Amino acid sequence: MQSKQKEKLLLLGATGRTGRLVLQNALAKGHAVNCLARNSNRIKPQEGLTIFEGNPINENDLNKALVGCETVISVLNISRKSDFPWSGLKTPKTYLSDVMEKLVSVAGEQGIKKVVICSAWGVAESKDDIPKWFKWFIDNSNISYAYKDHERQEQLLMASNLKWTIVRPVGLVNSKRQQLIRETFGNQPKPSLTISRQSVAIYMLDALKNDRLIGKKVVVSKG
Fold it and tell me: How far apart are alpha carbons 34 and 12 in whole angstroms?
């Protein structure tokens, strides 16, 4: 007998390195998933998955992709042309906050129950907690654009009437291993310096149903 499918979620950022793992794990856990992507041909059609071609900055595209969804996970980021910190940007400098502004506007109308976003350790007040060498990179390279816009999107989400969780991973590594998670609130306990993308993907999915995390900004690292 086939198990009952879980609630439908909208995933933004499904073509990214972490987003692909969120999608893989969501489908494995029985979620129905809508994906909205500018390059939808990069997403493999699968059972339980509905793919929408479009841009989440476009309110019409976002509205169509949200139909029937109860929750949203966003792993969008400000993309650079390479991992080199001074590499040029591929996305607009305010892409995250522009999307969040639209999402906050339409999510309430669509009856969205919860939004979980992937931000970063070092955003906003957590910048005081990161190593000095890390601060230097944020202040002196093009990764600064992502950190500034993560802060803007966080502020928009926190000011909304939506239920939300902001996940701030430490340094992401490309291991697909699931690791023990250390949760840090207000820099207590102090986080470790890395975490696998797989662990973050699973944590974000679990956060959808974790009422303890509603209205929380949590730094996640390898436990």
Answer: 9
Residue 10 region by backbone torsions, left for phi larger than 0, else alpha for psi between -120 and 50, else beta: beta
Is the backbone peptide bond immediately before 189 cis, with ω within 30 degrees of 0?
yes
Q: How far is CA 94 from the centre of its chain?
A: 16
**Alpha-carbon gap, residue 129 to 120, rounded angstroms:** 12
Cα distance between residue 189 and residue 219, in whole Å: 10
- In 3D space, the residue among 153, 142, 16 whose CA is nearest the CA of residue 89 turns out to be 142
State whether residue 195 is helix, strand or coil.
Answer: strand
Distance of CA 216 to the CA centre of its chain: 14
CA distance 125 to 216: 13
Encode pLDDT of 150-208 as tens digits.
999 999 999 999 999 999 999 999 987 788 999 999 999 999 999 999 999 999 999 99
Contact 205, 29 (CB under 8 A): yes
- Rounded distance, CA 169 to CA 219, Å? 6
CA distance 209 to 204: 10
- What distance in Å separates the CA atoms of residue 148 and residue 170, rounded to the nearest whole number? 16
Residue 15: phi and psi, rounded to 5, are -90, -5
Assign 211 to helix, strand or coil: helix
Q: Is the pTM of this model over 0.85?
A: yes
Closest CA to 19 of 54, 43, 3, 1: 43
Cis peptide before 56 (omega within 30 of 0): no
